[in-house]
Request: fold
Amino acid sequence: MKATYHKYMLEFKHPSGTSRGIMTEKETWFIVLEENGKKGIGECGILRGLSADDREDYEQKLQWTCENIHLGETALWETLREFPSIQFGVEMAFLSLKSENPYLLFPSDFTKNTKSIEINGLVWMGESSFMKKQIEEKLADGFNCIKLKIGAIDFQKELELLQFIRSHFSAEQIEIRVDANGAFALNEALDKLNQLNKFELHSIEQPIKKGNIEAMKILCETTPFPIALDEELIGIFSLDEKEKLLQEIKPQYIILKPSFIGGFRGTQEWITLADKYNIKWWITSALESNIGLNAIAQWTFLQKSEMPQGLGTGALYTNNFDCPLEVSQGQLWYNLSKNWDSGFLEKI
Reply:
């Protein structure tokens, strides 16, 4: 078996804002396996500044992984625990190699295009007029669940945007999720949650920065509406550490990004623990290309979650790869009339 790795820069159609700044491009890496005339493709979806494996030796570890691909998927997954995005890339590449179709990893009613996955419509940070325009577009596109990135512009303007939605749609009509990406100061977080509460929000992701375990625990105990841990899960590698975190904080939800938490195997560990402690969860992509998004979507469908998932990021880039994934009326479909980009390997 031969393994190679390839870097690829994804270019955003529009600068995309979070509380950590504006993104115009996103680095990703692919692992390609070749054996007996077949190829398997996996994406290592690293996000600089956020991923646990944003390290100087990242490319060296990719090279080591390709040189030691003979160790096999299970042994490599264990060895790569501190490199969750590479764990995921390896896992995906082996699944792809074993599959009759390298992009059909988990055949289901979803990949037959007879069932879909409900997703949230993502609204990026920016000037209030830009965010309002996005909100109007998402509502017009038939989304029943809107997710807003907050924490970067004036808080009062963010409250006005939420008021705009609620003045037209009740909580029964439109579910609103907000994601603060850790933007709230510890001494202001509860007050801001109380101000947000009047808009009947579904949940807020990561109101304060990760690592403030005691403060997050208290917030989860006193919050007027549910809190979802997101960044808090990044860098927690062992099963014991994962269980300890959930026992201490007792969040209402956790958000699972396979590229950040060790692929499907790492995600399943979190799901098993969450179910044990009656913590709800949903799965979200992490700005992967359509290669990674495709794998995540196929696996997510099999988990049979009834909540809207965070999988609508495939249209963000100018140089993504053509694929059957298609968003329609707030649902992600696998449109069999659309083909995969035949020149994928040439592009990378």
